[in-house]
């Protein structure tokens, strides 16, 4: 994108051919003016197309032309946003794709200030991000790099997709942020999608009973057979999710979902699809064959080929936490203004697609709560009911872990989850990957507990301060 104003006329052109070739400086000047005219024409053309598209869309929704919709803010929910750009030439308005050109991803890597200024294309811009300064800097300070190859921590508001923290560490490539890299095996956090699929498609509930044989955290072909009831153990979907029981989810993949359903629900949650973000993010990837054991590996997360970014992990978890089942585009840039204060870009929540119904999302949310109470997070969160901050929250999560190939010597350690006020509306989602090397450092779920506590400690303190000030003002 080029956000210059349209250039003026370059002046009259001498129609007689010159006997002399222009010097290099003159040639470059003419070339730049020609390119500027072409860019300006292109912007005007795109502006006309945009206006026509908006006019058609508004007329199709309201039965009224575009100008009447803008005059009446109640006639179209987008009217306030259109009014935001009044008196701004269409070629100055910035869209998400333009931000790729304006900002290098290094500029948004572990940022420590909510707002900052940049110069681009000879102009000065002020960038307001969605980052929570206190939270971002707390996370950057608690990250321990000694034994980690990668750390990626994303905090997000599940209601609107606004990123509260995007903090990462890559030992070999410090300029990279693992939060947006799609190189991490999804492991058992894929069980969120498998559970949502059998709930939605086959009517499972949290108390539905499934039989399995053998160990909980192994996956062998004999464990996928339909065994006589006397030869197996039974467990509820809620407990098998909380305890991350691989053969149960393997059987769900083989005997219920199959290739088609696994693919449909994985893509509904955003796999193999790109979504718009202010930093280019590669899609999370999944490949599913017809081979039964492969289906079991995919459904249980017992494979290294289903790869995901921490950012996408936060997006998936937000669809469950919000209880809407909607995949919301994440956003990091809240607003961009020029030196005169004109708003050229305003971030807004955007739904990509409906992954599952709200009813399904609510059931999966109960499974995630059970993970904290009795499942793989039980020891880490044990006694949180007595903690002055955590006791005021509903907390849910899903862990995942898998080793890399032996010669790589890496252990992938996941936590995705949420915390919400018991007596309020405040919610936050975390997605955390830690890739340990020779030694295990701080685990993903340990980071999650510390972050939940810090975030809500600040929130409750600010809330109490606001209430006290209100009481003083009312006296």
TrEMBL record:
<protein>
    <submittedName>
        <fullName>Penicillin binding protein transpeptidase domain-containing protein</fullName>
    </submittedName>
</protein>
<keyword id="KW-0472">Membrane</keyword>
<dbReference type="GO" id="GO:0071972">
    <property type="term" value="F:peptidoglycan L,D-transpeptidase activity"/>
</dbReference>
<feature type="region of interest" description="Disordered">
    <location>
        <begin position="1"/>
        <end position="31"/>
    </location>
</feature>
<dbReference type="Pfam" id="PF00905">
    <property type="entry name" value="Transpeptidase"/>
</dbReference>
<dbReference type="GO" id="GO:0005886">
    <property type="term" value="C:plasma membrane"/>
</dbReference>
<dbReference type="InterPro" id="IPR012338">
    <property type="entry name" value="Beta-lactam/transpept-like"/>
</dbReference>
<dbReference type="InterPro" id="IPR050515">
    <property type="entry name" value="Beta-lactam/transpept"/>
</dbReference>
<dbReference type="InterPro" id="IPR001460">
    <property type="entry name" value="PCN-bd_Tpept"/>
</dbReference>
<dbReference type="GO" id="GO:0071555">
    <property type="term" value="P:cell wall organization"/>
</dbReference>
<keyword id="KW-1133">Transmembrane helix</keyword>
<keyword id="KW-0812">Transmembrane</keyword>
<dbReference type="GO" id="GO:0008658">
    <property type="term" value="F:penicillin binding"/>
</dbReference>
<feature type="domain" description="Penicillin-binding protein transpeptidase">
    <location>
        <begin position="152"/>
        <end position="448"/>
    </location>
</feature>
<feature type="transmembrane region" description="Helical">
    <location>
        <begin position="44"/>
        <end position="62"/>
    </location>
</feature>
């Amino acid at each position: 994108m080029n956000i210059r104003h349209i250039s003026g006329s370059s002046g009259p052109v001498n129609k007689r051919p010159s006997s002399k070739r222009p010097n290099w400086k003159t040639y470059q000047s003419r070339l730049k003016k020609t390119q500027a005219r072409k860019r300006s024409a292109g912007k005007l053309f795109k502006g006309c197309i945009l206006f026509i598209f908006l006019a058609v869309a508004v007329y199709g929704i309201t039965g009224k032309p575009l100008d009447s919709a803008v005059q009446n803010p109640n006639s179209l929910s987008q009217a306030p946003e259109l009014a935001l750009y009044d008196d701004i030439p269409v070629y100055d308005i910035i869209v998400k794709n333009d931000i790729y050109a304006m900002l290098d991803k290094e500029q948004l890597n572990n940022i420590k200030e909510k707002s900052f200024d940049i110069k681009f294309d000879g102009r000065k811009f002020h960038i307001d991000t969605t980052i929570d300064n206190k939270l971002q800097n707390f996370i950057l300070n608690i990250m321990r790099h000694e034994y980690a190859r990668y750390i990626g921590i994303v905090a997000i508001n599940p209601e609107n997709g606004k990123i509260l923290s995007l903090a990462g560490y890559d030992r070999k490539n410090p300029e990279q942020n693992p939060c947006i890299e799609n190189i991490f095996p999804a492991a058992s956090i894929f069980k969120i999608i498998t559970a949502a699929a059998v709930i939605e498609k086959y009517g499972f509930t949290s108390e539905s009973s499934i039989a399995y044989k053998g160990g909980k955290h192994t996956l062998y072909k004999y464990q996928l057979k339909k065994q006589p009831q006397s030869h197996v153990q039974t467990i509820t979907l809620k407990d098998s999710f909380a305890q991350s029981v691989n053969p149960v989810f393997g059987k769900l993949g083989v005997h219920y979902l199959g290739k088609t359903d696994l693919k449909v629900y994985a893509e509904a949650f955003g796999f193999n699809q790109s979504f718009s973000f202010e930093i280019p993010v590669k899609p999370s990837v999944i490949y599913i064959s017809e081979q039964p054991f492969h289906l079991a590996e995919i459904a249980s997360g017992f494979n290294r080929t289903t790869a995901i970014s921490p950012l996408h992990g936060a997006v998936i978890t937000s669809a469950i936490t919000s209880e809407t089942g909607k995949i919301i585009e994440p956003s990091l840039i809240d607003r961009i203004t020029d030196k005169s204060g004109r708003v050229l870009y305003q971030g807004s929540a955007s739904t990509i697609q409906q992954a599952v119904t709200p009813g399904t999302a609510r059931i999966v949310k109960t499974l995630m709560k059970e993970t904290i109470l009795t499942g793989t997070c039980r020891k880490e969160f044990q006694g949180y009911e007595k903690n002055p901050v955590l006791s005021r929250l509903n907390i849910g999560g899903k862990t995942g872990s898998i080793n890399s190939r032996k010669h790589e010597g890496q252990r992938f350690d996941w936590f995705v989850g949420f915390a919400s006020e018991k007596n309020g509306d405040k919610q936050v989602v975390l997605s955390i990957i830690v890739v340990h090397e020779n030694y295990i450092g701080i685990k993903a779920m340990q980071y999650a507990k510390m972050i939940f506590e810090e975030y809500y400690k600040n929130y409750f303190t600010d809330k109490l301060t606001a209430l006290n000030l209100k009481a003083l003002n009312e006296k």
